[in-house]
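Subject: complex prediction, re-run

Hi both,

The earlier run crashed halfway through, so I resubmitted it with identical inputs.
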Amino acid sequence: MAFWDYANPTRFLKLVQVVLPWLTGLCVVAFAAGLYMSFFVAPEDYQQGQTVRIMYIHVPAAWLSMMCYSIMAVSSLGTLVWKHPLADVSAKTAAPIGAAFTFMALVTGSLWGKPMWGTYWVWDARLTSVLVLLIMYLGLMTLWRTMDDPIKAGKAAAVLTLAGALNLPVIKFSVDWWNTLHQPASVMRLDGPTIHPDILWPLLVMAVAFTLLFFVLHLMAMRNEILRRRVRTLRLRAASAAHPRSAVATAQPAE
Amino acid sequence: MDLGPHAGFILASYGLCLLTVLVLIAWIRIDKAGQEKALRELAEQGVSRRRPEDGGR
Amino acid sequence: MSTWAIVLFQRDLRLSVRVGGSALVGVLFFLAVVTVIPFGVGPDLNLLSRIGPAILWIGALLATLLGLDRLFQADRDDGTIDLMLMAGRPLELVVLIKCLAHWVATGLPLVVAAPLLGVFLNLEPAAMAAVTLTLLVGTPALTLIGAIGAALTVTLRRGGLLLAVLVVPLAIPVLIFGVSSADAAIHDPVPFLTPFLILCALSLIAAVIGPIASAAALRFAAD
Amino acid sequence: MFEDLSFSLEGGSALVVTGANGIGKSSLLRTLAGLVPLAQGSIRLEGGAPDTPPQEHIHYFGHQDAVKPALSALENLQFWRNFCAAAHGSGFSGDPMEPLKAFDILGIEHTAQLPAAFLSAGQKRRLSLCRLLVTPRPVWLMDEPTAALDRVSESQLLDLMNAHLAAGGLIVTATHSDLALEKTLNLHLQTGDAADLPLEDAPQ
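This time it finished cleanly. Structure:
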């Protein structure tokens, strides 16, 4: 299975070296096309006017915030079940990126909400559950930071990620229930079938661009993480070497 | 083009998203520079990934 | 300021932001508290904007208290406090500088986050500015008063909860004048300046009493 | 805790405190360090800087290393170097040592830039020992100084201690192992009867 070949971090780094420029290029092209389409091709909404253009970043960011968590959940399974060496690297590095996308979804959402609803924030079911997701991301990042040993931190974070993955639907459901008891829903809906292709296409292109952006950032961050662990191993070795200078002398012929 | 009465909100959302992505990229680049610097320093100290005794793993 | 003070400040700041440090956990806790309140009181925006300043203040108080248990504990556990007692530097100043570094690492982020969290509570811009200002002036007082509790519980293995119980009564005046000056800024007829100046005075008093009391407690804890 | 205990020590000599476990060797050192208040009696240091309490002439090297894992070894040492006030006494001619030189002497120079979390117990101990070298103080109180040290480091430590004595410093150490120190006096602590070791020489 080809996937397993890239379990070796060195091989993975080589792959990243090859893939990253292409992916970055594609991402830039997709963003250029998507931004052009969302500003110049897409029509303004008859109800919301020009503010509908915020949707082209808001909705992809919201999708990505959830996709990112799914990737972390799968990676956590990889850590706990398959013991894949890159799984916790992937899970760890996806968290800040996911947090950033969630943050973007929240910010654009409230900037969209102000002209439409008259307020930046309502404790609406959907918004609240995205906020809870953001807190989950930040909590996971903090957990990673407070533990010194990456292996232990990886396992702990994997358990929390999976518990969160099981809990998020429950949270979503209960927040929905909580909210309908108190306040009638005021969230605007994108009713699938009624979306005009002129709106749908820019949205899809932007979604592809955001996904590509995620993968570019994720690969870059994974590369950093692998380097960080290499530094850690080397430092541990450096500390344990009693006489590093003599080690230099013997190491040189081997190079 | 005319963004209507809410141009400020639209530009702010795009701007903030751009800013977030730029901060993320900058953070990743700085992190990478830091790790590579540490690796270089360790290499100068003569700590290699190969153990001197067995000449490679 | 002399070198040793700057060095101590830098060290404490470094320790709180590096791996194992807990500088940003407080902010996260603050965010969690503010998120949880609407589940309790309901998502009514009018209600939330009315009690918003109080929520932010209580959140900041709790976040400060929970972060304080490591203020001296880590230094006590590895013997650093013993050496600090013998270093030939006035312990009161050492405590003051440690509190200052702790506040910069944990209190200041709360102040910065307050306007952002004000959005969730539907605060008016004026109210947001007022709460942020009162937090900026008031959280140092919370840290300095909390330092007393941190010094008293330093010998206990799990002093965190006890610390909170000990310090909450002492922090009540700060809470009263913090919230009342923030409220005064929102409701025009009441003057803002009077409670705000009292809050400033409380912070200054805490800056004197906190280090002296904590230093005394730390000296007793040494033997 | 102690009764009728009195001793005096002259510059350039060491006092080795021995005794069974739990007899109070560590407590004695902590009392001398000023960390435990005296119930009765006094500790005097002659020839020290005026207006400075005795404990600020003292380096206390206890069981704990006071090493912060998140800081690099050098950052740890630099902090203590700048934080701890140096103290001089008449007849004591100790000079401050550069941190890297101290690392070099104790054989941990290669760990200077590493986070202290990566150091072994013995390396942390040696890092803690460097603290005594970078800030000169005439009196060293050392509680089991050889714990967690290998044979090589132990002999390095002895060299350092002898150098400190040669510079006119004082050392009080509690130990189980024999230390080859010059000009040693022994204080053996016992239960019951008074462990009394009066020495007539006053510190310089």
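Chain D touches chain A through eleven residues (CB under 8 Å).

- K.
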